Please model this.
Amino acid sequence: MEALDTWKEGPRRSGRRPRCSRRAMLVGTAAWAGFIATASAHSVGHDTAPLGGDASIISVSGAHNAPIPIGIPPFQGHNGASLQIAKRIRKVVAEDLNGCGLFHVRGKSLPQKEGHSNPVPEWAIWAARGVDALVSALVTCGKDRHLSVAYRLWSVAEQKQLRGVEYRTDQENWRRLAHIIADNIYEQLIGQPGYFNTRVAYVAVQGTATHQHRRLAVMDYDGHDVQYLTSGRWMALSPQWNPHRQQVAFVSYENNHPRVMLLDLQSGARTIVGDFGAMTFGPRFSPDGRSLLFSVTGEFGAAIVRYDLDTRRLTRLTDADSINVTPCYNPDGTKIVFNSDRDGPGNQQLFVMKADGSNVQRISYGSGRYAEPDWSPDGRLIAFTRLTATEFGIGVMRPDGLGERLLTQGYLVQTPSFCPNGRVIMYCRQQPQKQGMRSRLMMIGADGYNGRAISDTGDATDPAWGPILPL
Model:
């Protein structure tokens, strides 16, 4: 995004084992071209405190019980076209902030003005409404479908501007621009990066109960702008993002041969990650994006291997005498968490090992079976799926196995995936219906609060939260 430094601030008033199956082992087994236009972002006025500095952060202690009141009156525009886009951008920003559970947006009922220049707020009015922070914006639709959005974030208590930025891009990118503004506000007030300007890869389930098609798809984190990446002729499962490229690894059943594939989201090129004469599944990128972990089946189980994407060298990290699956690196790439039944058939548990496969230690000891671990981006938690005799659950624990707690339970809940800042987990919830199963993508805070469904994208499974998109 192009950032402009030209908008001046106003006055400051501030045995023999069975084959692997998804149900038994919980194994998660037209490309998007990115931001189309060149975009830029520049400061508007003066930032009164460093981004994330103590003076600019509003405490979020207990925010799930008392969200931060933030005023977002209607965004302003120079003409009718600008006002229409301003209304849409304001709606997405408000939905992002309301939806995360940390904010309570107010101010929609205020009148919308045309051609105004984003003045200093009327502090007394907003203070009377109990608002802590305030957002104002001026939207301009230029020639050749160019879009300019200049927004300001204000502290009502201090009666001063906290941040001001003007973004310039194409009108087609208005929704992504709204997510970027919401991320800006989130980071300034919470003190850590937001997660709204992100994409999620998932499996779209279409067809009847007896003839289903599973297509690889991507969407905005809130369920909008869905794009299908495979035709559905062959089943796709278990997508995972490369943290440094517009690339997704997934399991393709092309020609009825389950193998890990790479898909370049810009060119649409697909590449088979080796052909090892066996089923390969459960891919996961290393933190540097230069290698993949996945499992290769053998006669009695499955081994976890590391595949170097540059040299194409394959290194075995576990044996195949047991079923070792769903590996995931910690953020610095020194350790791997995975799911294995090495302590006995049917007794699948979580284990952590060093990145070279040594020093394997079991970390799960609760009742039931554990699978599908996902290490949080900050390294503090591991999310997992747990299956008891009666139901599934999504939970978290510390990397040493302590502090385990379930966040949600259901008939079938599975495939947890952390957002980039580690505060929210996306997962799949399946419920039996009269006509087969209903599969929906859900979100819940890592603290167990603010559970909600993603905007309806149809039946969907296997969410994989991607990294924050570059400006």
